[in-house]
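Ticket #4471: structure export looks truncated?
Reporter: QA, pipeline team
Priority: medium

Steps to reproduce: submit the single chain below to the structure queue and open the exported record.
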Amino acid sequence: MTATTDGSTGALPPRAASASEDRNRTTPEAAGTVEARDAATRSMERATDFLLARQDAEGWWKGDLETNVTMDAEDLLLRQFLGIRDEPTTRGAALFIRGEQREDGTWASFFGGPGELSTTIEAYVALRLAGDAPDDAHMAKAAAWIRERGGIAAARVFTRIWLALFGWWKWDDLPELPPELIYFPKWMPLNIYDFGCWARQTIVPLTVVSATRPVRPAPFALDELHTDARNPNPVGPLAPMTTWDGAFQRLDKALHQYRRVAPRALRRAAMNTAGRWIIERQENDGCWGGIQPPAVYSVIALHLLGYDLEHPVMREGLASLNRFAVWRDDGARMIEACQSPVWDTCLATIALADAGVPADHPQLVKAADWMLGEEIVRPGDWSVKRPQLPPGGWAFEFHNDNYPDIDDTAEVVLALRRVRHHDPDRVENAIGRGVRWNLGMQSKDGGWGAFDVDNTSAFPNRLPFCDFGEVIDPPSADVTAHVVEMLAVEGLTQDPRTRRGIEWLLSHQE
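Actual output as written to the record:
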């Protein structure tokens, strides 16, 4: 027997095995586990080094955000419409668009996806602008595919609007979108706040475009994309009157009739009100909502309202679009649909902290400083539904103070909690505001949407104009789950609002 350090007695501990003895006794299964663990550790170390080396000097991270070539095609069409398209930009965009074409001659709307008609039409037209000839092999293949699927007539409304700007489609054969929509009160169905923020920011400027119906001289014809050159704009049969689709189709026909008798003074006033609404929502960097679609249509709308290209609003708007361009080493020019520094930074911070980087590491502290500086402390469009709720959220982008989003706010709180900051009171106050704002943005069904609260009206998606995807912002599982995770970390697991969020998730499992 021998004495232990606490004065008791006990048997001598067994001699520790040497590393070589351990290896000799290791089974093949255990050896595989060790190798896998070592490989995972090495991978994590490489990933950590990669992230730390790519942090911006200001403290943020941002990756290039790829979507599809409609961004690049519409950028060229915008420049053609404004008369500012230049050769270097055109050449770089065309190089990127050609590189994204699939073997069957089409372009996809998402990575690895099938060919998509509207995306393919817009890419084709952009390459025509760049000088590619219709009888070039890659162009002929794309045009044949387009015709097989109904041609331009079968494209989405947004694509046909771009074509109408140059006379390649008739405005009369597009759904009507009256600017008087801006006057609808907030309690009325189809008011602009019934739309999700991304759709709202796009639709308001498009009401101006729809009202003015501009046509710039087309640089070439597009007969090869019509299925029947004698009747390129076929009108399909109306849905039954007893269906929502039928009712909204007839509403659209009535709006076309209203266009002919709309009081000019009212229409001009509505367009000017829409113009003021657009300008009030231009961000400090010149963009709108930090995303490409509202920006391009806002620039077009303001130009149609009389703003010349040297006006500060227009000049800064165009400059913001230029900042969305990513020039690659091969000379290709890709347009980001938006930029994601807040999202990338909070996720990078969480990943690095969870990978073992010390909580007070200077680069994590710098990231926290940058995120703290990005907090939005003024009301935005979300306050239409929550006028008494104090601000305190974060957006996805560099500048998007009108539209902080619930998802980023939850993840920024989770990131800040992982950093040991030199000013803990500042962090606690920011977290407190973020938690309060997220809780205040809970929808009445218990879930959380991305930008708005209770943005669940079924009517906007029914409009003939809205054939391009979801135009409302109902609660979703990923946003709700991130908020619930954040609330749990903040010690609010048993809070009734957290429990309602959990119940929402359970009831929406697929």
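Status: closed, not a bug. The export was complete when the record was re-opened. Leaving a note from the reviewer for reference: The longest strand covers residues 325-327.
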